[in-house]
Amino acid sequence: MASEFQRNKLQAMFDAFDADGNGYLEEGDFVALADRWARLPRVEPGSELAGRVEDVLLGWWGQLTAATGTAREGRIDLNGILSVVDRLPAMSEQVTATADTIFDAVDENGDGRISRAEHQRLVDTWHGQGVSTADVFDRLDRDGDGYLGRAEFAVLWTQFWVSDDPREPGNLLCGPLPGTAG
């Protein structure tokens, strides 16, 4: 069962994904999310990466409805999302594929690293608006080289979606946690 920490952490993401603000996630919300990601410079229409981004994001809609048994209703509430969080450790292949696709979409110059500016675009794209990230990147960049490599990113991505430990830096991957200054 998802903890209160996980609930608070994922509430902001749920709200950002809920494009129409009706308190539920629906397929249209995932289409809107995929459309936001399609506007990133490296996600060119018709490209292999654009197809992957759409497949991954819309694939999660299918995963969520199947896992929560809500395909018929066509909508999922926050509790439904949180019930899937408990299953993510057993879905490492899907989580890693998502991390790789998001990494490739955000790595604007294709150098195999995510810079501070690219990380800011990731946060802004997830939230659908500009989000102040303060010192978040410095806390994510554990080796202090000014970049997040693919392996670093995959660990942080998994921590964001799965971690129940507020001390793990990946909890900040998508921006400051609600109620914190960053």
Automatic annotation (TrEMBL):
It holds the Pfam family EF-hand_8. SMART domains: EFh. It comes from the Bacteria. Residues 5-40, 94-129, 135-163 form the EF-hand domain. This is EF-hand domain-containing protein. It comes from Streptomyces similanensis.
